[in-house]
Amino acid sequence: MPTVVKTIGSGGGRDYSTLAAWAASLPANLVTDGNSYEGDCYNDSEFTGSATLLTLSGHTTDASHTITLTTGPGQSFRDNANVQTNALNYSSSNGVGINSSVAYAGTISITDSNVFLSNLQIKNTGSHGRVLISEGTSLSIVMDDCIFVKTGTSAYVVAVSGGGQKIRNSLLLAAGSGISYILAGSLSTGVGMPDLYFCDLVAASDVGTPPIEAIHCVYSSSTVENCAIFGCAALSGGSTTITFTSCMTDLASPPAGVTGSKTYAKQFQNTTAASGDFREKAGADLQGSGTADGTNGATDIAGTARPQGGHWDIGCWELLISVTIVAADAWMPIALLPTQRVDQPVRIELIATQRGDLRTPLESLTILRSDRGLRVEDSSGVARDTAGRIEWAAQAVTEWRAATEWPTLLLRNLAATGEFTAALAWGAPISPEWMEAIATLLSADAVLQVDWSGLPASVLVSLDRLLTSPGKRRRLDTPGRLRLLKPL
Question: In this structure, which CATH number among 3.40.50, 1.20.950, 1.10.490, 2.160.20 belongs to the domain 3-297?
Answer without folding.
Answer: 2.160.20
